[in-house]
Specification:
The complex is a heterodimer of chains A (425) and B (210).
Chain A (H helix, E strand, L loop, with lengths): L2 H12 L5 H13 L1 H22 L8 H6 L9 H4 L2 H27 L25 E2 L60 E11 L2 H14 L3 E9 L5 E10 L3 H11 L1 E11 L1 H27 L3 H33 E10 L13 H59 L1
Parallel strand pairs in A: 2-6
Antiparallel strand pairs in A: 1-5, 2-5, 3-4, 4-6
Helix pairs in contact in A: 1-2, 2-3, 7-8, 9-10
Chain B lengths: L1 H11 L2 H23 L2 H18 L9 H23 L28 H19 L3 H14 L7 H9 L3 H27 L11
Helix pairs in contact in B: 1-2, 2-3, 2-4, 2-6, 3-4, 6-7, 6-8, 7-8
The chains are: A alpha+beta (425), B mainly alpha (210).
Chain lengths: 425, 210
């Protein structure tokens, strides 16, 4: 047997798939091949080492449990463990009924299509529940100059109902480290009038200036003073050398007015549009929908742990990942809205105007215009002559070569004529 | 299941529930920590760290995998962080006395069984230390599988160790087996190489010469 074949068998041996005949073959090869025998010895040695490492693990030291558990409260004796078996079976049975009831509510919520936002409405946990398009109230037309936000308000899907008293609402937000904007301080009851208004303000300005650099840096300075930042900046120059700057600024909403007055003094504002969209209703709709989804997720996960049937488990798993996806989407929506509420978008187009050269033809007299035309004509002539000279200078090398060739040709001809002439004499 | 209730309660802040929950896990965590660190004091400190970290992060657990495998992952991360921290502190040494930190892992390894003769003790201790540091240098997936294997091998349970590993690591049984086998082949090849180096007269295996 070759060493390659031995290697292949060794792989099977490691996987525990080698037949007794193959094992015997391997032993025979090892007897004659020290290299392969060494491989085998190394493998056996490794396995023995792993076993030794496992065996040398001492039992958990006394007192270690107390050391860590003592930092947390002492556990009460587990009441459930003391129950006799029959009572525990009873509890499981009741739990099964509760689970079935929860499933019924979930399915019922899905069937229901009532879009009731009234928290005193029907008792259902809405998950895959009724969908409706939220009607958000727009304060104005959304300016086309602003960058397209990720906010698709029309696709907000409001919850069809609200949790009941039976639902356990776990305040997960306390544990999540990366979402400070959902701190409990902002949590308000849906019925309360203590809801913060969520208004997105955006501004679009067209400005002109004769001092381009100064205006641009004044705008930048105003932005910095207001605590904002530049999201996008582009400067272009047109064929007549005049520059245009397009700026997209994000300015904290509270500073918006002071920034606008700063902008007013930076350049001349030719047009201005301010829009304000009140997204409060759809924002809180989304928020309550998010809560329902979170409750649903906890429910589904609890069910998944209990599920015995494989097909049930698969269905639950797929619903769980749907719900998680919905949660992520809703959270992203809320975050995006928060960002836009807290920082307004200001789009500025700054155009440079040419410096004032008062060439006002209508005011000039005929005589002036004739002399002006004459001087223009002289200018043209001068330019034409200059161009001609330059052309000649540029062409000089070629002309020289041509001249040399012509001279040579003429000389040769003369030489021939003389020869002919002499020959004739 | 009582465990899920305890998890929910612990997430809500109930320390008693947390203690109940983790008492069931502590034996496995201890074995994993010792298998990684091979030092009693370090393993004790690591276990306490693991408990703290699980308490801090239990809110993030969403049931996407079995709780025991989530806890196992936290334990492994704590141990690896400890090893890295020790490595960052290590100083180079030319002579390796018996109770000095291992230059590869930066750990001082427990003294061997006193019933062996002194030469055997030294050889055995060095051999095991080398294997252990080789394990820690395996690619992450294989390393995790091997450490889990070592930790579970000493448990005395009826279910096969592969099935228990599959539960703990939250992996399919086939994946567990193939990764473990690949790791065994790698360790065997490494062992073969260092044995060859030793027999060729090269002073391999003595890390201070590298």
């Amino acid at each position: 047997m070759t060493c390659e074949a031995y290697e292949a068998l060794l792989v099977r041996h490691i996987a525990g798939e080698a037949t007794p005949e193959e094992e015997a073959e391997m032993h025979r090869h090892e007897a004659g091949c020290p290299a392969c025998a060494a491989q085998r010895a190394a493998l056996d040695g490794t396995d023995a080492d792993l076993r030794t490492l496992a065996e040398e693990i001492p039992p958990m030291p006394e007192g270690l449990h107390t050391r860590w558990a003592g930092r947390f409260a002492q556990p009460e004796p587990d009441a459930a463990a003391d129950e006799p078996m029959t009572q525990r079976k009873h509890r499981n049975w009741w739990r099964g009924i509760a689970v079935a009831a929860a499933l019924v509510f979930v399915v019922g919520g899905a069937i229901m299509t009532k879009d009731s936002l009234n928290p005193r409405g029907t008792a259902a946990v809405s998950g895959a529940a009724a969908r409706k398009t939220a009607d958000s109230t727009y304060g104005g037309v959304y300016d086309g100059g602003a960058p397209a936000p990720n906010l698709s308000l029309n696709s907000y899907q409001a919850a069809g109902g609200v949790e009941t008293e039976e639902a356990m609402v776990y305040d997960f937000e306390e544990e999540i480290e990366e979402e400070p904007e959902f701190a409990p301080a902002e949590e308000t009851p849906e019925t309360g009038s203590a809801r913060e208004k969520k208004i997105i303000r955006n501004v679009s300005l067209s400005m002109t200036t004769r001092a381009f650099e100064e205006s641009l840096s004044a705008l930048r300075q105003g932005c910095e003073n207001a605590g904002g930042w530049i999201a996008q900046e582009a400067v272009s120059t047109n064929y007549s050398g005049l520059r245009t700057a397009s700026l997209t600024l994000r300015i904290p909403a509270e500073q918006l007015d002071s920034f606008l007055s700063a902008a007013d003094s930076a350049a001349q504002i030719t047009s201005r549009m301010v829009t304000a969209s009140d997204v409060t209703d759809s924002y809180y709709d989304t928020k309550s929908r998010l809560e329902s989804e979170r409750v649903l997720l906890a429910r589904l996960q609890a069910l998944a742990v209990e599920a015995a049937d494989l097909s049930d488990l698969l269905e639950l798993e797929s619903k769980i990942s749907e719900t998680q996806y919905t949660i992520d989407r809703l959270e992203g929506s809320l975050r995006s809205t928060d960002r836009q509420v807290s920082d307004s978008t200001v789009s500025i187009t700054l155009r440079e105007e040419a410096k004032a050269e008062a060439v006002q033809n209508e005011q000039l007299s005929l005589g002036d215009r004739i002399s002006h035309a004459f001087s223009v004509g002289l200018e043209w002539l001068g330019e034409a002559l200059t161009d001609l000279c330059l052309f000649l200078v540029a062409a000089l090398p070629f002309l020289l070569i041509i001249a040399v060739l012509i001279a040579a040709a003429v000389l040769i001809r003369r030489g021939r004529k003389r020869k002919d002439g002499k020959a004739k004499q | 299941m009582a465990e899920w209730d305890d998890i929910l309660e612990a997430q809500a802040g109930d320390e008693n529930a947390f203690t109940r929950l983790m008492t069931a896990q502590e034996a496995f965590i201890w074995r994993v920590c010792y298998a990684c660190l091979r030092n009693r004091e370090e393993a004790e400190d690591a276990l306490i760290d693991v408990m703290q970290r699980v308490w801090q992060r239990i809110g993030i657990y969403r049931g996407e995998c079995a709780f025991s495998s989530w806890v196992g992952r936290v334990a492994r991360n704590v141990c690896i962080d400890r090893i890295r921290a020790r490595q960052a502190e290590k100083r180079p040494q030319h002579v390796i006395p018996l109770d000095a930190p291992d230059p590869d892992t930066g750990l001082a390894i427990d003294p061997p069984d006193p019933s062996d003769g002194p030469e055997q003790q030294l050889e055995q201790k060095e051999a095991l230390a080398e294997v252990h540091s080789a394990i820690l240098q395996l690619p992450e997936e294989q390393r995790d599988v091997v450490l889990c294997y070592i930790a579970l091998l000493s448990e005395g349970e009826e279910r096969s160790v592969y099935q228990r590993m599959a539960d703990r690591l939250d992996l399919p049984l086939g994946t567990v087996q193939s990764r473990l086998n690949r790791a065994r082949r790698k360790l065997a090849a490494w062992r073969n190489n260092s044995a060859q180096n030793a027999s060729d007269g090269v002073k391999g295996g003595r890390r201070d010469d590298m």
